Amino acid sequence: MTANTQKKSRALNLLLIGVLFTWMTLAAFPFLWTLWGSFKVEGDFFSKANWANALTGPLTLKESGGLFTGAGYHGAWIKEAFGIAAINTMIVCVFVVTISLTFGTLGGYALSRSTFRYAFWFLIIALIFRAMPPITLVSGYLPVFFDWNLWGKLPTAIIVLVAINQPFTLWMLHSFFKNIPKDLDESAMVDGCNRFQAFRHVIVPVMWPGVITTGLFSFLLAYNDFAVTAMILSKENQTMIPKISSFLGSTQTKGNVMFAVAAVVSATAPLFVMVLFFQRQIVSGLTAGAVKG
Amino acid sequence: MILKKLTFAVTLALSTNVVLANCGDINGRVSIIGNEFPAIQTVAAAAATCASDSVTVESNLTADYQTINLPGLQGNPAEYTTAVITNSSIVALMNEDVIRPLDELIAKYGQDIPKSNLITIDGKVMAVAFMANAQHLAYRKDVLAEIGVEPPTTYEELLSAAEMIREKGIMQYPVGGTYQAGWNLATEFVNMYNGYGADYYKASDSAEVAINNPQGVATLEMMKALTEYMNPDYLTHDSNAATAEFEAGNTALINIWGSRMATLQDNEGAEEVVFSNTISGGPLTVAGGTTPATALWWDGWSIAKNISDEDAEASFVAMANGIDPSILNDDTMGEAVWMLEGYTPSAANDGVFASIKAGSKSFPMLPYHGLLHTALGDNLSDYLQGKESAEQALADTEAAYTTAAKEKGFL
Amino acid sequence: MKHKTFFWFVLPSSLAMLLFIFFPIVSVLIQSVHVDTEQVIKEVTNCGPFGCETISSIDQEATQALKQDNPLGRFAGFTTYLDRRHLAIGEISTAWRSNNGMGDFFKQLMNLPFYKALSFTLAYTFIVTPLVILFGFVIAVAVNSAVKWVRGPLIFFSLLPMLVTPLVGALILFWMVDARGVVGAALQYLADDPNLSVKASTPLTWVMLMVYGVWHSAPFAFIVYYAGLQSVNKETLEAAMIDGASRWEQIRYVIIPHLLPLTTFIALMQLMDNFRVFEPIVSFSAEAHATSLSWAIYNDLGGETRQLSSAAATSVLTILGICILLLPVLVRTWRDFSRK
Prior knowledge:
The complex is a heterotrimer. By secondary structure, chain A is mostly helical. Chain A has 14 helices and no strands. Chain A folds into two domains: 37-69, no CATH class; 80-287, MetI-like fold, CATH 1.10.3720.10. In chain A, helix 10 runs antiparallel to helix 11 (195-224). Chain B is α/β, with parallel strands linked by helices. Chain B folds into two domains: 2-132 and 297-351, Periplasmic binding protein-like II (D-Maltodextrin-Binding Protein, domain 2, 3-Layer(aba) Sandwich), CATH 3.40.190.10; 134-295 and 353-407, D-Maltodextrin-Binding Protein, domain 2. Chain B has helices spanning 2-20, 38-48, 65-74, 90-95, 103-109, 141-147, 155-167, 183-196, 214-227, 239-247, 261-265, 272-275, 309-322, 350-357, 369-379, 381-384, 390-407; strands at 28-34, 55-61, 82-86, 118-121, 124-140, 175-177, 253-257, 278-280, 295-303, 337-338, 361-362. The interface between A and B is large, with 36 and 40 residues.
């Protein structure tokens, strides 16, 4: 399906370009608008008088003396120490991804190789587990975590995120392993390896594309989670998203909303680098057949 | 400029800290849970000055405090040693019996706290209040001058003023309020219902609800009449949105929290013609009544029950230090209507004081009122949108409340 | 694979799920069939900064004594499931007996919180899921036909709706659709109606929530499909071309069958996520116009007095609802599995 394998009619080309153009506008416009607005003051960016104020910025000019202001960024990073939240997020993400994938590859591999019925039921039960609304889960955790003095700590949040994400990880990796030919590990076992050695020496080297893809979804879950982290992390261990939410607060303090907007723009920037970097792996990973139901 | 103001505030806070730390001989753990608005940040910061080698002071100030404080106080020992609460949110803590009476601690360490700040329930002090709040009128004096009327004192006057503003073509939707479906809408109902003066329950010791009455219907009808002059999106307006509408010059008469007045009157986020003409009015009465259509709130703190006496003493001393009159300075003065000695009210606080003086009722502090509040918030919007009658909306509310109260064992 | 090996391989993952999902589900099940013990009320004097009054308060000693005897509360069986906030059996049968025609019965039904929430939840699930799959597919095909060097940025921008936290994403979009916001103003211009307000109208709010849902989830379908497209067998495609298949026929007979297993996976995840729709309702303050089952749980837990039993019952009903929704997909998976 690459461009050279087939000729495309002009009409079709135009249609495809039209689709792409429309979608890019829809997908990117709100973000670009936010990027622009993060250098304005709240009264302009969230103007209730006239939307064009966000472009022309009359109040920005009056309050900060220029057409653009870095007050949002200054407030978020310097005054409110957003950097600490960024470090916490990094810790949470690294551990959630590593642990999720370790548990998930072991489980997913076993599920793809077992021919017994219980393997199927295991997958189904995992799916039903995923149906539980997270908000109920979290409110159930709170009394127990407080009782056992686990509340507020990063490891608690990490293991909860891993557990909540396991059903998805298992399903995805299971379908990925199903597409790795059985002959590979079975011939290794004929040669005298046990199951774990076969997994370690034969499967691990070829599984990376699928693992990276699944890892990306785990990463995004940990990166963007609010329901869990907002409730079970204490102030000093807060990750980025609850920190951003605390800028908004129940009654918005003047200017703090723009801290949130600036923080969101800052939080998205590393994702851009990451997506560009992993783009090939994501694609080649899924290519190799992850997510084949 | 902002930066300069900021450094000034910081140096000021640092210099006052030295004066403040008067924490006596205590040792233990202080851990504060509470909402996150500036006044509470000030109190927590002052409490933190008691930190020393023998005392640790931590605070978790978050908008989600209501979800966290109960489980956080239930453990043994409790994660939090003290909770900042309001007359509404203290009820959940009292219902579960997780806060302790403060009488002994007051006798020992709290002689300076004015008696009027103590919340006494059944003869025992359960909390110490430090600030007051209420919803009241805020108006644009230039707009009222243009139509040539005095600031309204009743909702009927407000409606006729709104009509004149609209007729003159000054504003299409001159009235504003916190009518967001849910907690805000229920609060507005409570305000208005207080003005009509009927009871919420059949008897003072009964959990049986009684709001489906002529006053209840009149309350809803008055609210609906007001919404005719509000931006059609009123069911999505919380106090942030109502403030933004006012600052943008779209509304001239709003019922807003006293704690937001300083925001309305400062020179950020609005044109000069708006903020320089913004006046904090008094509470309004309705239907010829004398009790204002508003409810009084206080914010205060309580001490956890499931902690050692040592921690409780440390927490009490730290929090008493947190509400010491010396926390008041040029920056913190305007953050709230402080109930502290040495507080000099600014013009922004007129509304709350007027509400207290006019004999407004305080927000009901009943064990089951939270359930009614949730039910009100869920069921009134159908009437305001014209989907059902006022009687039906109130009947739905009563049915929802009764089901919930049965589950919680009140009925 | 031997039972024992299987056990050791799935142990870590099972342990995590057992502790953090299974046990909570069990406790939710237990909670949902219990209600609180009776609360003993007494009259007390309450004095504060605004004066004294006589109010009622819980008699802690008497209530604690009752609680000690029944730490789980009173056993209530299925009463919570059947009460007005959930299945509302009593209210429905009354409405059925005393209604003035089907329209009236339907109106009374929609006045019950559970059915009101269910109607939006189902509408959202069944409209958003197919649209997400459709748009994800179309975008994937379009990006895939673009020149190689622009694909990287195209993928990043396509993923943006999923990357930006809904917390602030929704805040900004909520402002945009305001009557004075940039999108709201554009809509007023297009509809030629200066009073048009998306937030004030129930149908428009539903549309807005659904458009947001599609916008937010389409990237997920897109990335899965895009990857799937990379592995389409080129020989089959070329053979189809030589046979004179049109572009559409290639898609219809080669690409779509190839992507079918992926579609099952996307449908499974999307049905589940959409049935639990919650965040946009809160972010867009849409509860006056639309509620969902997850929102009902949030509302029960978020009030000043938490209604745990009610929230537990709604959670169990949500899980049951998802099981019913997924049944066709599960049956299919079972057939696949048995075949192997």
